[in-house]
Design a protein that fits this description.
single chain; Rossmann fold; 2 domains; five-stranded parallel beta sheet; 13% strand
Length: 292
């Protein structure tokens, strides 16, 4: 059974078997909803206490689903543990000494034992999946149990039935395969307006030097990126698939050059691809968000 948050595109979720959609709530005073999620999972899956649980434990709604159970932590992307290590959000237990009794009760009821202890930094996390060997150097992996998943190998060793199912889930069409050899520049976007507060004009200025006056530019949009790319760059082609870039690489969709601000998707591309990483310093709002 798949418990799916709102960050996953609805068109992906509805193609998965036995899926349950879970909405995010406002951060303000949401302890009742989070407490409800701790019960909700049993209503949807009566065998939950006996299941093998895989979770992305850094998500806002993760701790109610983990509850008191042991789990395996799933990666958020290649080299994600190293990125989390350098990022602004660190694992931290609630400081109960500074809270009222009422606040303590709310956290206990709504969050559970692992609240704040993400990235597998708690005793209930029994293993961690990694898809990049670079993550073995992270403080969140060193000295702890983990399993390296060679995703490319897993794809190539999968049955045709499984591959076709995955292609269907992520809307990988035959038309996409026809265009794969025409891609010269691939732009890997991120939700910079949504997460960093960039305006449309600022988004345009970040990417314009790498799109204008170039031929066969294809944009692979992030699932949460709502920027109107065709409106501002009418000559581009939008990669109409929800598949992560790593999966597209495995099936042979590799451009001559890939451009991104700081998406880790670029790291798994073959060495034949020229990789242009603009970096967070390309705009002060981006740098401030990721390194505050």
């Amino acid at each position: 059974m798949f418990f799916i948050g709102e960050a996953v595109n609805i068109n992906i979720a509805t193609k998965l078997p036995h899926y349950v959609l879970v909405k995010n709530q406002s951060v303000k005073d949401n302890w009742k909803y989070m407490s409800w999620l701790r019960i909700y999972k049993y209503l949807k899956c009566w065998s939950y206490p006996f299941a093998r649980i895989y979770v992305q434990d850094h998500l806002y709604i993760s701790s109610p689903f983990i509850g008191p159970y042991k789990y395996i932590n799933l990666p958020d992307g290649p080299q994600c543990y190293g990125i989390w290590e350098k990022g602004p959000y660190k694992p931290q237990k609630p400081i109960y000494g500074r809270m009222s009794v009422k606040s303590r009760i709310k956290i206990f009821l709504s969050r559970g034992r692992v609240f704040g202890l993400m990235y597998g930094s708690n005793k209930q996390c029994i293993s961690r999946w990694i898809t990049s060997l670079h993550d073995t150097e992270s403080i969140y992996i060193k000295g702890k149990k983990y399993e390296y998943i060679d995703a490319a190998k897993e794809w190539h060793n999968s049955t045709e039935i499984k591959q076709n199912f995955i292609k269907k889930v992520f809307n990988i069409s035959d038309d996409l395969f026809c265009k794969k050899h025409e891609i010269e520049t691939l732009i890997l976007t991120q939700p910079l307006r949504e997460d960093c507060g960039l305006t449309d004009e600022e988004m345009y200025n970040v990417y314009a030097p790498y799109i204008l006056n170039r031929k066969n530019v294809v944009v692979k949009t992030h699932p949460r990126d709502k920027f109107e790319w065709i409106k501002f760059f009418p000559s581009i082609y939008i990669l109409d698939t929800y598949a992560p870039m790593q999966l597209l690489n495995y099936i042979g969709i590799c451009p001559k050059e890939a451009v991104t601000v700081c998406s880790t998707s670029i790291s798994d591309m073959p060495d034949t691809v020229k990789k242009t990483i603009l970096g967070t310093n390309v705009h002060k709002k981006i740098h401030k968000t990721y390194f505050r």
